[in-house]
Amino acid sequence: MTAEIAICNRSGIALAADSAVTIGSGSGKERVWKHANKLFSLGPHNDIGLMIHNSGDIIGFPWEVVIKEFKKFIGRKIFKTVQDCAETFFIYIESENIKLNNSFDPINSLVVYSTILDTVRFFKIKKDSIREKGKITSVFKKHYKIEIDKLNKIPEIECKFDKKTFEDKFLENLKSFASAEFGFELSKKCIEMILDLSLQRLNRMWESGRHSGLVFAGFGKDELNPVVINYTIDGKYNSRFRFWKNFTEDFNKNDGLMAQIFPFAQGDMVQSFVEGVTAENLKYLSKSIFELLEKKSQKLINDYVLDNDSKIVEESMHRADNKQMIKLFVEEFETYREREFVQPILEVVRSLPKEEMAGMAEALVEITALKRKVDSDIESVGGPIDVAVISKGDGFIWIKRKHYFNIDLNRDFLYRKEREVKGGEHD
Asked: What global pTM score does this model have?
């Protein structure tokens, strides 16, 4: 896993990333290595940085290789905006300039296969709650509808998969996965529901668990103020990558925006620092208060309502009122946190010099690493922390950067990089 952060004000951006990478996640034999590179410069001709989080590779290719090859590809090209850089990057990885279009289909379609298998297992868990085989179709229909209703609230991605092509290519694999999991052949209707739910997941901003996050941050040639853009990329199918933009924060287009803090991947400690509470704690608090209100309502109904039909009506009315009270509580608490915690911190960040922003970014990654060290079986955040600052005047500046080699023993490395900067073979 990963902890990364971007801290911005109008003078620049501070980026910090840990170095831990977890191998064998979900296997029960996880190992953590603490020297992965997750923060990269796209300079010297562009004042733009790129951070990666979650999966460290894309269909078997390490992100570090892909990003450095992209840097060679753009050479001395200067991007007018950070968005131009991001768009060029995605065009590049889908082109023949880098051999990500390998012919080994299982690797190309790994996310598709895993999504189908996850969907089969989703229904398998629901089926295990009953014993009568004849009720399987009705159980499928119930939970299929619930999941489809949830997915309909998630935006679709641009590179959607065609249903007929998807069915022609993966239906037999789906049937094999289903037979292996259930131990018998499912009905045609059940297979159709698995197929459609798998396709709906792949056609929306739904993360398979093998996704990567990409953060483009910095200044284009025509941008005086910082820009941060966050994408998710999650596998590919038929030479098209599944990717979508999560957000763009452009200080050039928002005159009222003076400072911002963006955590990526494991951001619970950053949220706790900035807001005074984590999303998990807030969820627990809301759930607990709702349960207390429900118990109080039930006691009142049992004590003062005698008629059974009236009890049903009262229970429905009380439940609706309790949900409304929880909604008001969440809204009021959010306003309180914004006023008492978030805005005072952002007021400080607004006036921080670049070196202080770098120190703050590093410290927030460090406290996340410390938290994971004491509350987890494995230290999923840790290792050396790479820190950089990007400003319009000075460009991309490393504040802290790990090396796996001794630079004094590799003077030819500096010579080769100097040639690349001056143009050399990439002119």
From this structure: 0.87
